[in-house]
Amino acid sequence: MPDLDTSARSTASYDWSATALGDTARWPLPLRLTSDLLLNSPVPTLLVWGTETITVFNEAYALLAGPGYGRVPGGSVPPVLPPPLAAAGKILDAAWGGEAGVMQDTALTFRRLDGSQESRFDLRLTPVRDETGAVRGVQVALAPATAAPQEEDTGDGAMRILVVEDNVDSQYLVCEMLKAFGHEADGVAHPDDALALLARQRYDVLFSDVSLPGMSGVDLATRAIADDPSLRVIFASGYGDTLLRHLSFPYQSLQKPYEIDQLQDALSKVARRPAKGG
């Protein structure tokens, strides 16, 4: 499969004269804005416009689907019903009724010249309204599937995580993300507060910034593991992993700023691997 072209794209990048949508100068503003955003997005995305099922899609979607579903940027009724639309069913109907929706971990099969390809995505459907508020189209984005079978198979379930981060805003966001993943999370800003909490109750994971006031995250983790060898550790650092190279206990590290999928991957790894006993 060819690589995705990373150059900027918009409606002006294509000739629409031969499509069902015609000259862009006559397009309604919502169609133009949505198409501009879609065409310049790295996420596979398509727009269904009007009751005729006219579709517009970006290069990321075309690379995924193959030539059998039309050529970028679309603009006409597709020769074959796109798999995301076939899979969306009632969620698509609800989007036409004005309700945004998500279909998690959806299997899509694309019939390609080199054989069928099945992939899993979260389908995110967003109604596109005109100036009067009427729904004129539906945008369908194919986000990476949030379900992680390898995590489900571990049997570890929710973990109790202590977050140590002196930036209160960052601490709050991390805790909220962890809770959204189904874990329990408490946050503190100072290593002394962390040690006090660790002495009072048991945690499965210590999630600590490396740079902290009064004591480094490395020293904090070393003391915490001395008291509880089963504690698993994730470090977050904006300064690389120089301080982490000679540690005697297992850990995962994240380089700030990190992506949500990197955080999920680190959590999955510590859930599958208990810390080294003392």
From TrEMBL:
Write down which residues bear the modification named 4-aspartylphosphate: D209
Stretches assigned to the Response regulatory domain? 160-271
Q: Which residues form a coiled coil?
A: none
The GO biological-process annotations, alphabetized, read as: phosphorelay signal transduction system
Sorted UniProt keywords: Phosphoprotein
Q: Which domain of life is it from?
A: Bacteria
Protein name as catalogued: Response regulatory domain-containing protein
Record the organism: Massilia aurea
